[in-house]
Amino acid sequence: MRKLICTILLFFISIAALPQSVDENQLGAWYMYFVNKKFENSRFGIQGDYQFRFWDIASDLEQILLRTGVTYTPKNASIMFTLGYANITTGTFGESNDTFNENRMYQEALFGQKIGSRFLLTHRFRYEQRWVQGQDFRTRYRYNIFVNIPLNSQELKKNTIYIALYNEIFINGERNIGNDRTVEFFDRNRTYTGLGYNLLDNLRLQAGWMKQTTVNWSKGQLQFSLHHQF
Question: Where does the record locate the signal sequence feature (predicted)?
Fold first, then answer.
């Protein structure tokens, strides 16, 4: 009888210790600040984004992402290149406070185009080298298309209200991540719809909803972002 009781207790303890699966019906939230600065009389600049992501509105940590890069814009070209570094702390869904860390290098190319008088498109290609805690070296490829549509103007300037859309797809490079573990070729996709307002010519406030779909789960996230260019 004692052995039976101990077995039952160990069973329930082991169940309680398992990580909780992501609640796909729970609405999360991301709070983000994007900055871009071009140095005077130079083709170089810096950019960064600093994000606090939560599985719910503000208490269950999903990620803290700190990313900064050096930019270069060639002469007579509408493209910008970036070489950067990011540090990411990722939390576990639910009551657990467990986290793991990732260091990341990235290179990207960003260029825009205008369709008609109001459709402002931006294409971003990004290649990442990732050192994730507890995993072998990994790489990832990303493509994002952003679409901004000014409503009361033909460009994003002070007092302009605009619709903001984007879709980004993530593809894994290395599939083997160590200890006989593998990841899928497809990593995730993000689709976003939002509304923005230009507080100044170089400062935009944006809010919207993003659906993130991975190979394991699909979840909605609110996004609040400030975009600063100077």
Answer: 1-19
Per the structure block, which two tokens stand in for 190? 């993000």
pLDDT tens figures, 34-48: 999 999 999 999 999
In contact, 188 and 212? CB cutoff 8 Å: yes
CATH number for 26-229: choose from 3.10.129.10, 3.40.50.300, 2.40.50.100, 2.40.160.40: 2.40.160.40
| Domain spans, the chain | 26-229
CA distance 55 to 220: 10
Strands 218-229 and 28-38, bridge-based pairing:
parallel
Integer angstrom CA distances of residue 229 from 18, 168, 204: 44, 22, 9
Residue 6 pLDDT: 45
Q: Tokens in use for 222?
A: 């609110």
Sign for the CA dihedral angle at 37, 49, 131, 123 comes to negative
Amino acid letter, residue 72:
Y
Average model confidence (pLDDT) for the chain?
92
Q: What percent of the chain has pLDDT over 90?
A: 89
Q: Of 168, 227, 222, 167, which Cα lies nearest the Cα of 197?
A: 227
Letter for the amino acid at 174? E
pLDDT digits (tens, 9 = 90+) for 18-29: 446 899 999 999
